[in-house]
Amino acid sequence: MDFIVALDNRETPLHKQLYDEVRSAILAGRLGPGQRVPSTREMAKSLGVSRTTVTLSYDELLSEGYLEAVVGSGTFVCKELPEELLRTPSPKSPASESRKVTSPRKALSEYGSRLKPMPAPFRDPEGQHEINFVYGVPDLTIFPIQQWSRLLSRHCRAAHSDALSYVSDNLGYLPLRQAIATYLARSRAVRCSPEQVFIVNGAQQALDLIARVLLDKGDRVALEEPGYPGARLLFQAHGAHIHPIRVDSQGLQTSALSTLPDGVKLVYITPSHQFPLGVSLALARRLELLAWAEAHQALIIEDDYDSEYRYAARPNPALQGLDRAGSVIYVGTFSKVMYPGLRIAYMAVPPDLADVLSRAKWLADRQSPMLEQYALADFIESGWLERHIRRMRLMYGSRRDALVAALGEHFGDRASILGDSAGMHLIARLATGLADEEVVKRAAKAGVELGTSRRCYFGAGQDAEFIFGFAALNERQIREGVSRISRATLA
User: Fold this and answer.
1) Is residue 411 part of a domain?
2) What's 65's domain CATH number?
3) Between the chain's N and C termini, which has fewer beta carbons within 10 Å?
4) Whole-angstrom distance, CA of residue 460 vs CA of residue 474
5) Of all helices (H) and strands (E), which one includes residue 426?
6) With left for phi above 0 and alpha for psi between -120 and 50, is residue 20 left, alpha or beta?
7) pLDDT confidence of residue 125
């Protein structure tokens, strides 16, 4: 042999060691293109290993394009290696040729043009500061990752063909949709069949699909004020006219519905734990909103993003469960109760919208990833999801209590807590005598990430209104974070 093979790594199978040695020799040029390599019998004899070991290595090198077999002649190094076939050559141009000035880019679409002036996408500044009161992020250290990994591994080993290819039903894995429908009926009093449940890649995709099939440029959408900025910006990007409706201690002020202009198509609402103020929509207002929607042939999007977490009372039944006219599209997500990277959310839609939303989903991305759907169906049906939620509800409730206590200790009557005892964040109005930007700047200098609610307002924002996400912090971090903010704003 023209190169030396050393098989001495006891942790790696012998055939894999031999594969690595031969591949390295080819890539380094010690075995050149077209050069013959020893036969399996010759290689086995020289190394003192079984011929089967060498055959396994050669088969892998042949299948990947490093070696080629010539009948009657032997095995040779390929003249064109796979790395070369995958590498795009740089375009050649005369050295003296100056770079040409291209013509102006063609105009963006109306949709693209509406995106240009919008604020840059919000990115959670997780990890930038020692203590981070970012909202919407669960405690990922508590998630039962071992159990979840076992479920994923089980389906990977089973190698379901549906999990590796296109599927005929782009609405999602049917057993998962059945499990979600059963779970929603039990936990949220949602009334839907599995045929009404859609699996989507996050709640934001659900909102985008709804907007695509229901909104034309100039259509009217009513939103909570303040409210979730991701929904408002999305509807604006689709060309909708936004009509904000103020929120008070009982939720959306439904008395303002009568002042809306004719033709409002959609009302977007977070009734169980309003974002960002944290209040719950009162029952009388729920019924008034449903009656208004039915009378005006409008649709309601109920975003139930973290409704599982209520600490002083049982969860409120979903608005969808009270609906008798098919006016509510229910949107939920596993990002808050499991982990954001899962990217699985769901819609429960009125039956008459199922077909058109199915077509929109197919055009957007064909289907959501299947292996995770298989595992999630098992995770729900085996009871792991609800066990995890029960555990997190106790933990988050204690963390919220610690946050309220720390704000009371360090700010006293200069702190006003808004909203119900629920969710993964709270709003606190802090009377510091400083501009909001100065409070945020001083907190950051003290190693604490803190945000305001200003981006949640369509109009002028509320001064001195800060969002404290507490789910991802332990009680010690919460107390220390509030203490640092207090010291920084008194300096």
Assistant:
1) yes
2) 1.10.10.10
3) C
4) 34
5) strand 425-430
6) alpha
7) 47
Q: What is the pLDDT of residues 250-259, one digit of tens each?
A: 999 999 999 9
Q: Which amino acid is at 36?
A: R
355 and 418 co-located in one domain = no
What pLDDT does residue 95 have? 54
Q: Which pLDDT does position 460 carry in this prediction? A: 86
Instruction: Kindly state whether residues 180 and 260 are assigned to the same domain.
Output: yes
Residue 256, both tokens = 């303002």
In DSSP notation, 244-311 reads EEEEETTEE-GGGGGGSPTTEEEEEE--SS-TTT-----HHHHHHHHHHHHHHT-EEEEE-TTTT-BS
Please state the domain count of the chain. Answer: 3
Q: Which of 381, 407, 441 is the last residue of a domain?
A: 381
- What secondary structure does DSSP assign to 51-72, as a single string? HHHHHHHHHHHHHHTSEEEETT
Nearest to 69 by CA among 80, 59, 81: 59
Cα–Cα distance between 121 and 117 in angstroms, integer?
A: 12
CB atoms within 10 A of CB 421: 16
Residue whose entry in the numeric block shows the structure tokens 């042949």: 62
The torsion region of residue 275 among left (phi > 0), alpha (psi -120 to 50) and beta comes to beta
Q: Quick one: CA torsion of 277, 278, 283, 285, rounded to 10 degrees?
A: 20
Provide φ and ψ at 383, rounded to 5°: 90, 0
Domain termination residue (choose one: 325, 356, 381)? 381
pTM: predicted TM-score of the whole model, two decimal places: 0.84
362: CATH: 3.40.640.10
The two tokens of residue 88 are 């795009």
Look up the domain containing 285 and give its range.
Answer: 145-381
Does residue 99 sit within a domain? no
**Judgement on whether residues 192 and 267 belong to the same structural domain of the protein:** yes
Closest C-alpha among 343, 356, 338, 337 to residue 299: 356
Q: What percent of the chain has pLDDT over 90?
A: 75
The residue ranges of DSSP E strands in 334-378, in sequence order, are 345-348
Low-confidence ranges of the chain (pLDDT < 50): 125-126
Q: Are residues 361 and 402 in the same domain?
A: no
